[in-house]
Amino acid sequence: MASTAEIAIPQSAEDIVPSWVQQVLQKDLPGVTITDVHIKGSIGDGEGYMSDIIAFDAVGTRNGTSQRYSLVAKLTNFAKPWTLFDQWSKDFQIRAETTEVNFYSNAVPEFLSVADPCAEQKSGNEDDENRPHGDSLFLPKCYFAATDPSSMLSVRVMENLKDHGFSIKPKGQPLSREEIMLTAGALAQLHGLSHRLELRSGVHLPEKYDWIMTDSDISDVMDVATYQYQTNLKDFAAAFPDQADLVARLEKFRAPILTSEDPRVKVLCHTDCWINNIMFKHAGDEPIDARLVDWQSSMYLPPSSDLALLFVCNTGWDVFHNHRDDILAHYHHILQETLGPNESMGLQSYTLDQLKADFKADCLYGVFQRFIRLMVLPPDTDLVRMLKEIQGWEVI
Prior knowledge:
Elements: H1 18-25, E1 32-42, E2 51-62, E3 65-76, H2 90-113, H3 117-125, E4 142-147, E5 154-159, E6 166-167, H4 177-201, H5 205-208, H6 219-239, H7 244-252, E7 267-269, E8 278-283, E9 286-292, E10 299-301, H8 303-314, H9 317-322, H10 324-339, H11 352-372, H12 381-392
Antiparallel strand pairs: 1-2, 2-3, 3-5, 4-5, 6-8, 7-10, 8-9
């Protein structure tokens, strides 16, 4: 293991042993004793561009009672090739991994410290007695996250959402109205808590958290992403030769980078909220809960940027056209509920009409994100209809 001042950072599944797991869990579960660890193997869901995700069960006792904890360890793997952008550098991988470590170890505890328990109960999870105490509603419980400064290896130990009934929807299948509604609510909680913390502390989040990704951090990879966009646009043009005018418009713009110079109110955004990074729990065929995973690219942006990506990269025409207003209204309601009635600045005065206008403006960002993913989200007639509607907003 690569060691830090406190707890070692495992390099492989062989390093995940009872004594190490006990150290990891003791902060959240004082008095726990781990006697055995059963490694279940790698989890294949999602792209796993940068990490190995090892599922394991930890067995032991706490307060005289036998316990079994279903967990995953997310480990840095510098040898793992990027599926989409193999030109991205090791330095960027390290930057992204440490961003997620800091998100879990620094930001999440502070978000939870300003959360309104009453608002959490209203969100529909008050009957889930198996959720670890102190967990938030929009992401998995993380017990430990750290980076070794010498090796730059990182680890995050989290609850195993799959064993709690969560799964990622198969690629190529658009999210339903109910799934988008749940995801929009999760984003509203993230945005609301980050803004609430900023108001309470009186410090802008980029000043408080120097690990948040900035436009300068992603400038190098944007060249690669722009190349991918242009390449995939040619494939789109070949698939839809009757859309020459639309393609010509799409060819004219380059990567729409949302920057810190944007004068709008900003929050901590996920920035990568597409189907591989959203896990759903179902009761029968009905989705009842959503969790957001993979926080390596968290940025300080207008909240509508997350929503634009969510819709353009994850929905079909019916949800985008017929249910968009209802979903944005739901997001706005959860956002205000999360902020609470005592916050009188910033997003508390953010109207639904402003949200809708910002959403339309940021759909250009969503379109760019969709096109760089076209190899895993193939173009179809629904995408064409969505693009034509966005074109009608004079965004394209």
